[in-house]
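Quick one, T. Sequence first:
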Amino acid sequence: QILSDGKVFIHLCNYIEPWEDLSLVQRESLNHHYHQNCGCQITTCYAVPCT
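Structure tokens:
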């Protein structure tokens, strides 16, 4: 989301990052802690943009 002042605002529910670019800790966190404690839906995206 781009704010009126030109800054980009990213909250946890619109975080998009290629899986191969994530560290092992980030992958484990997304698969376990984040998935269990977040109201967001985690989905796999095979093409950009995700649909």
